[in-house]
Design goal:
Blueprint: E1 2-7, E2 10-13, E3 18-26, E4 33-39, E5 46-52, E6 56-59, E7 67-72, E8 77-82, E9 91-98, E10 111-112, E11 116-121
């Protein structure tokens, strides 16, 4: 079992920045690929970014160049630095852990956090 707890969400103006954190506990953190997803009201949950192995990273096109995912295995934590935020980034952001599969798809993730709200005002 892996327990995930997100933090760092909040209200920010367009153009601003936030850094989300996801602290993991339980099994060996470094064994898992870690992903960030988001879900806006009335919309499907969508992929944001993921990191795996030594240096594997992938971003959704909508956030590439603005968001940065990173992980600190010594702290069992994954981060999502979000810059140049837009109102359309408003959503509940979830971190998730995967033991394998296509990391773009939510179905590949076995453990999920409770989510943290990010609201970007225009």
């Amino acid at each position: 079992q892996v327990q995930l707890v997100e933090s760092g969400g909040g209200l920010v103006q367009a153009g601003g920045s936030l850094r989300l954190s996801c602290a993991a506990s339980g099994r060996t953190f470094s064994d898992y690929a870690m992903g960030w997803f988001r879900q806006a009201p009335g919309k499907e949950r969508e992929f944001v970014a993921c990191t795996w192995g030594t240096d594997g990273i992938y971003y959704a096109g909508s956030v590439k160049g603005r968001f940065t995912i990173s992980r600190d295995n010594a702290k069992n934590t994954v981060y999502l630095q979000m810059n140049s935020l837009k109102p359309e980034d408003t959503a509940v952001y979830y971190c998730a852990a995967s033991a394998g599969g296509n990391y773009y798809y939510a179905s590949s993730y076995h453990y999920w956090g409770q989510g943290t709200q990010v609201t970007v005002s225009s």
